[in-house]
Write a structure and sequence with these properties.
By secondary structure, this protein is an all-beta fold. It is 0% helix and 56% strand. It has no helices and eleven strands. It is elongated.
């Protein structure tokens, strides 16, 4: 059984920083893409950033220049460094990974971690 465990959310002032972590555990053969999504109240879940196992990165336009995604393949962990946070970044942030445990890859989600940007 695969689990994605997130940490690092919390309350921060506008302009502040937070670092999210997500570690995958279980019987894992390989991980292709890992990433972060977020969902604000009343809105659809949206991609924040993702990174492939070869290091190709994709960011949402709203976070470019402020957020940095990185990955430690040896630890099956993905990170999201969030700087210059804005109130509109407030959301539940979910980790996502495409993991192969057998013949076919599957999507897995973390439980979500709350990020609140407020004065």
């Amino acid at each position: 059984q695969v689990q994605l465990v997130e940490s690092g959310g919390g309350l921060v002032l506008p302009g502040g920083s937070l670092r999210l972590s997500c570690a995958a555990s279980g019987t894992i053969f390989s991980i292709s893409s890992m990433g972060w999504y977020r969902q604000a109240p009343g809105k659809q879940r949206e991609l924040v950033a993702d990174i492939t196992n070869s290091g190709r990165i994709n960011y949402a336009d709203s976070v470019k220049g402020r957020f940095t995604i990185s990955r430690d393949n040896g630890k099956n962990t993905v990170y999201l460094q969030m700087n210059s946070l804005k109130p509109e970044d407030t959301a539940v942030y979910y980790c996502n990974a495409v993991i192969r445990t057998g013949l076919l890859p599957q999507y897995y989600w973390g439980q979500g971690t709350q990020v609140t940007v407020s004065s």
